[in-house]
ABC transporter ATP-binding protein
Amino acid sequence: MSAETPTTDRSASATNRILDVDGVDSGYGEVQVLSDLSLHLNEGEIVCLIGPNGAGKSTVLKTVFGLLAPWTGQITLRGEPIGGRDPADLVRDGVGYVPQVDNVFGSLSIDENLRMGGVARRDGLEEVIGQLYDRFPILREKEGAKARTLSGGQRQVLAFARALVMEPEVLLIDEPSAGLAPSIVQDVFENVQTVNDLGTTILMVEQNAREGLRISDRGYVLDQGSVAYEDDADQLLDNPEVSRLYLGGADYA
């Protein structure tokens, strides 16, 4: 396994618009974080949100997922308004969310975690869990183990799989590599790509900006709650101004 995630040519992504965030203001209490924010996802893409700490990246995901209601603007899923809807309803409608922390139940086994992820399913639970075990063999190996006994990377795999039990069209992932040892980070990004290969469109926040962009189709750079740059991921990686301001300069690796 190489030390660096290779740049991925993902030009074959579908072009159908699946998620739109249009002119959204949002925040916490009276504190505004997002200002006139607009972005979109095309079906089949991985889109990466990068930017400095406090730029509003995680707030975007929380607002899309209904944990925060947009103050102004509109969020649509396949053209249907979803802004401010209850997260449980959004899960049923095809939106999943993997938060940065508290994304698994440590006191439950892997199998119990997966079943908790599918409580809203009416049928097909055993089949989809079996498929996830096939896709992520480490989970089958440890299906009876408590989630708290897993390594950081294994917990992240479980968090992805748990979100996939409902077979979402769109998965929101917040900082998948946060707090993980460098030796594990590439595995986590490979698992993000595996999730995408299963047919799930991904909107990902990632502080490891270069590695996040390398597996993505497009990217948005957020700064002070607004989009500062938007482009294909490889173009953002090659943009000297983006590199200087947000990627740590040309010598950053």
